[in-house]
Write a structure and sequence with these properties.
- The chain has two domains: 150 residues, NAD(P)-binding Rossmann-like Domain (Rossmann fold, 3-Layer(aba) Sandwich); 108 residues, 6-phosphogluconate dehydrogenase C-terminal fold, CATH 1.10.3660.10.
- The protein has 265 residues and is α/β, with parallel strands linked by helices.
- The chain contains nine helices and eight strands.
- The protein has a five-stranded parallel beta sheet with strand order 2-1-3-4-5, sandwiched between helices.
- Helix 5 crosses helix 8 and helix 8 packs across helix 9.
- Helices cover 48% and strands 12% of the residues.
C-alpha cells in the first residue's frame, strides 16, 4: 500500500514518518512540487485550509481511481462544503482531523509517534462507501491512532471550538500579561507551564482557524467569559460558599470526564 503526503510541516511530516515506520511506501510532496499522476492508495493533504482546498481542486485529475484523499484541517464545515461536490467520481474524499500536535511547528519538530494514543476525527459524506471508511480507519490505526471518531462537520466544529480553540485563546491571553517572562521565574510550578504551553502557536495558522470557525468559537468564548465572571463576582463579594460551589461543579465534571476516559470512551 502506498501513502502520499502533501505538505511537510508538523502534521504532514509526522504522518510521513509514522507511515514509514508502519511499513508503508511513502511519497513526500511539497507544496510547490510539480507532479504528475499521484501513484498512491491514500493521499494526506497537510496544508492550511485554503491551500488544501486549492491543492485538491488543482490536482483532482491526478489521483488514481479509488484513491482515498484526506485533509487534516482543524475546521471541517468550510472544507467539507467546498470539496464534497467535486465532480470526480473515481476517488474518495474524507475530511479528517488528527487530534494531536505540538506547540512548535515545522517538519523538524515532526515525530513518528505523534499520533500514538490520539484520536482521528472523520466527517465523511453519507454517500461514502462503508468499505472505504474501513480502509481509512485501518490506515489511521497503523499510524498509531487509538480510535477514529466519525461525526458530522457541524458537530466537529462546535466541539473543537471548546476542546482546542478556546484553550489556545486562553493560553495566548494568559501569556500576554506583563507578568510573563522574567517576573514569573521562581513563582511558577506545573500549573502555569501546562496552561501556557501552547501559547507559542503559529499566529497565521491559528488566526485563520479561529476566523474559519468564528461563530462556534465566539459562542464558546462567550460562555467561558460568563463562567469566569462568576468566579470574579464571588471573589469580589467575598462569597466563600459560592466559590466552593463553583469549584465543586468543575471538579465533579472533570472527575466524570476522567472516569469516562478511564473506560476508553
Amino acid at each position: 500500500m502506498k501513502v502520499a503526503v502533501a505538505g511537510m510541516g508538523l502534521i504532514g511530516g509526522s504522518i510521513y514518518k509514522a507511515a514509514i515506520q508502519a511499513g508503508y511506501e511513502v511519497l513526500a510532496i511539497h507544496h510547490d512540487d510539480a507532479i504528475g499522476e499521484i501513484d498512491a492508495d491514500f493521499v494526506f493533504v497537510a496544508m492550511p485550509p485554503k491551500a488544501t482546498e486549492s491543492w485538491i481542486i488543482n490536482n483532482a485529475k491526478l489521483f488514481r481511481p479509488n484513491t482515498i484523499v484526506m485533509d487534516v484541517c482543524g475546521v471541517k464545515r468550510e472544507i467539507t462544503k467546498v470539496l464534497s461536490d467535486l465532480t470526480e467520481k473515481s476517488w474518495y474524499f474524507i475530511p479528517a482531523h488528527p487530534m494531536a500536535g505540538r506547540e512548535n511547528s515545522g517538519f523538524e519538530n515532526s515525530l513518528a509517534n505523534l499520533f500514538v494514543g490520539a484520536s482521528m476525527i472523520f466527517t465523511p459524506s453519507s454517500r461514502l462507501p462503508k468499505e472505504v471508511l474501513e480502509k481509512a480507519k485501518k490506515l489511521c490505526c497503523d499510524l498509531g491512532f487509538a480510535k477514529v471518531v466519525v461525526t458530522d462537520a457541524e458537530t466537529h466544529d462546535e466541539m473543537i471550538a471548546f476542546t482546542s480553540q478556546l484553550c489556545h485563546v486562553i493560553a495566548s491571553a494568559y501569556s500576554s500579561d506583563d507578568k510573563t517572562g522574567e517576573k514569573s521565574i521562581g513563582f511558577s510550578a506545573g500549573s502555569y507551564a501546562d496552561m501556557t504551553r501552547i501559547a507559542t502557536m503559529d499566529e497565521k495558522v491559528w488566526a485563520s482557524l479561529f476566523l474559519s470557525n468564528a461563530d462556534k468559537l465566539s459562542q464558546t468564548l462567550g460562555a467561558f467569559i460568563d463562567r469566569i465572571s462568576q468566579y470574579k463576582d464571588a471573589i469580589d463579594r467575598q462569597d466563600k460558599a459560592r466559590l466552593e460551589s463553583l469549584i465543586i461543579k468543575g471538579a465533579e465534571l472533570k472527575r466524570r470526564e476522567n472516569a469516562l476516559l478511564g473506560k476508553g470512551v
